[in-house]
Amino acid sequence: MRIAEARTIVTCPGRNFVTLKLTTEDGTTGLGDATLNGRELSVAAYLSEHVCPMLIGRDAHAIEDTWRYLYNGAYWRRGPVTMTAIAAVDTALWDIKGKVASLPVYQLLGGRCRAGVTVYGHAHGETIDEMLDAVQGYVDRGYRAVRVQCGIPGLPSTYGVGRDALFYEPAEGGRAPREETWSTRRYLRAIPEAIAAARERFGPELELLHDVHHRLTPIEAAQLGRALEPHQLFWLEDPVPGELQASLRTVRRHTTTPIAIGEVLNSIWDCEQLIREQLIDFIRMSVVHSGGITHLRRVLHLAELHRVRSGCHGATDLSPVCLAAALHLDLAIPNFGLQEYMRHTPETDAVFPHAYRFADGLLHPGEVPGLGVELDEAAAERHPYLPALLPVARLTDGTMHDW
Predict the structure, then answer these.
(1) E strand or H helix that includes residue 392
(2) pLDDT tens digits, residue range 207-245?
(3) Which of 61, 46, 148 is nearest to 101 (CA)?
(4) Lesser CB count within 10 Å: N end or C end of the chain?
(5) Average pLDDT over every residue of 4-29
(6) CA triplet 110, 113, 115: central angle to 5 degrees?
């Protein structure tokens, strides 16, 4: 069964998404997410100008060989643009294979290892009281795990704190990114108090998480991890930049708070040391930014050997196609940890009708053959691309800092 057509579709139903659609000679279609937040058109061009022409006539069933063809066959390897493009092709081919086999993708990956995929939502507020109310909203919806983010006194804005209770999208339109102000000292004073309040109100059963978003030095991250130990976080996310792999040794020596890292990593070579030395507890790479189901499964097999669990990135900058792919993988791996679940807007759900469903704190990918997600191209055309950029951060003295 040969690939007859490969098309890239860009749409913006509230935020930008890039989707690869493959069609075989017999008319079977497969979808792959190719969204790279703030740099969407770079991946769209990489696919349309370089990858799509190479796919015509290739065997749609040869998933591993096609992955190697696109990765090993390119001298300039890795990086977010390349790996996102490869992921789109890989995911679309798994979608096709599932449809041809009349099986959901998780069955092709070995079958289910659990009844459903435990997910966490994002609760945030400008104040501790607002944050606690947001957590209550997720608890009332049946969530068993919640990420908590709170405004920092003295800072005009804070990562993770948005205007809507359910939807958080930091990317904004304009020629240049919005600049935010950051103070590590204020943050380190405020966050332990906020998390302590959440633990006191909701007790020991609700899993609590917090995202630092790469902003601390190793010793600052160690200080925060130690301060949060009494509150038993499920994980502390991205306490230091993901590139500083050896620096996690410092964090590990000073705190037992579980660490999750990986959403900006793109390959097994980016996280091999983190996993092999057990410097993290959860690997948070996403299907779309790490070369697709084929490559992320390779990462998770390595992680399983070292007792590192999955925690796939699942923000709204990943389309329902990517979320569905993650759910199929989550269901089939033995070392699943937790799945991020930021709900998409109704406009996005209309463009990407899907079979996955939420119930009692779990997401279920459904039993539809393939990934269980389709693309309404007529609806997609009604939402043309709109340029949007992620913010940047400066310290209070004007120095550029990690956002």
Answers:
(1) strand 392-395
(2) 999 999 999 999 999 999 999 999 999 999 999 987 778
(3) 61
(4) N
(5) 98
(6) 130
Shared domain for 184 and 212, answered yes or no, is yes
H or E element at residue 20? strand 17-24
Same domain, 116 and 97: no
Residue after which a domain boundary falls, among 103, 129, 158: 103
The strand pair at 339-340 and 145-150 is best described as unpaired
Q: Which amino acid is at 273?
A: Q
| CA atoms in the 13 A half-sphere facing the CB of 35 | 24
Those residues whose C-beta lies under 8 Å from the C-beta of residue 36, and which sit 6 or more positions away, are: 18, 42, 43, 80, 81, 84, 288, 289
Evaluate if residue 164 carries a pLDDT over 80: no
Give domain status of residue 398, yes or no: no
**What is the number of structural domains in the chain?**
2
Give the model's pLDDT for residue 64.
Answer: 98
Q: Are residues 132 and 206 in the same domain?
A: yes
According to DSSP, the β-strands at 362-364 and 357-359 are antiparallel
Length of the chain: 403
Residue ranges making up the domain that contains 125: 108-368
Q: Would you name the residues annotated as active-site residues?
A: 159, 213
pTM (two decimals): 0.96
The alpha carbon dihedral of 148, 36, 163, 324 has a sign of negative
| 400: enclosing H helix or E strand | strand 400-401
Both structure tokens of 40: 């969407």
